[in-house]
């Protein structure tokens, strides 16, 4: 994989056939997505911004029932990290179970749906199942090509390092992996679990990837985020998250390239690998910082009328990127795979995809 001093185009390509199960590890909040096209009145009633991600508060509790009663809803297995692992597996196709996923669910109907969906997606999901809280849900409130996400973590919030991650049979799966991915959302759940995985990756010169995930993570969970940052080999984010991160870190710039450079240069434990920072900007170019070099990559063009739902675009981008990383492809190929995956996903409702990719 990317040794120190390698640029984006020099990493040797490994055939997919050499991949083994459990090479890619993800840990996060498994949620059942409830997607619906809503109206502005609905957003206003629950004081939601058209394009945002928030955790449900008491005032949002009725939202989950109302959206089901009032609008035509679709259910999809979700949660940011699980989506990305699923997408990476879809891009890879064979062998099955390249992706492993850990998270917490309830012993209920929604939990059973999530287990079935993970199996259908050929990912090796090992859930910590408990009966104190129900399986988490996420309402995706869609207006035009915007989406406002409201997550009720419930069971997802109950993940326990000592009850699951530390178990010998589970930790063996962690050790099998060579690429690790955790969305920033999990920083609100189990910092100690993230740090255990991050330190393992760093000590064994494996790739640990993290996503900023949402502005509120950068703002209100800044301390947790910065405890993990020294272990991060690949940092993902979009333009709004990058702006929030830059503001909280006193970067004194709003320029996306400068933000990428400054984030890339933050202290790092494993000095054998320079950090890679990848920032997306919707339909605008993707920015990547490595060493002191910043590159930009145009996204695939799409007619606005072909956009069905941008809800899973960020997760899909990461999934595509991870599929390249775990196959040890050059970074420009990882970005290409990421753009392809995002382009497929936004043409469909929810984070769903056709049977097979036609990515070359």
TrEMBL record:
* Record text on cofactor binding: Binds 3 Mg(2+) ions per subunit.
Q: What is its EC number?
A: 2.7.1.20
Listed GO MF terms: adenosine kinase activity; ATP binding
Cellular component GO terms, alphabetical: cytosol; nucleus
Q: Which residues form the active site?
A: 315
Which Pfam families does the entry link to? Answer: PfkB
Localization per record: Nucleus
Q: Where is the Carbohydrate kinase PfkB domain?
A: 45-354
Looking up InterPro entries in the UniProt record yields: Adenokinase, Carboh/pur_kinase_PfkB_CS, PfkB_dom, Ribokinase-like
Q: Which domain of life is it from?
A: Eukaryota
Q: Which pathway does the database say it acts in?
A: Purine metabolism; AMP biosynthesis via salvage pathway; AMP from adenosine: step 1/1
- Report which reactions are catalysed by this protein: adenosine + ATP = AMP + ADP + H(+)
Biological process, per Gene Ontology: adenosine salvage; AMP salvage; purine nucleobase metabolic process
Query: Which EC class heads this enzyme's classification?
Result: transferase
The record's keywords, sorted A to Z, are: ATP-binding, Kinase, Magnesium, Nucleotide-binding, Nucleus, Purine salvage, Transferase
Cofactor(s) this protein cannot do without = Mg(2+)
Q: How does it assemble?
A: Monomer.
The record describes the protein's role as: ATP dependent phosphorylation of adenosine and other related nucleoside analogs to monophosphate derivatives.
Q: Which family does it belong to?
A: Belongs to the carbohydrate kinase PfkB family.
Name of the protein: Adenosine kinase
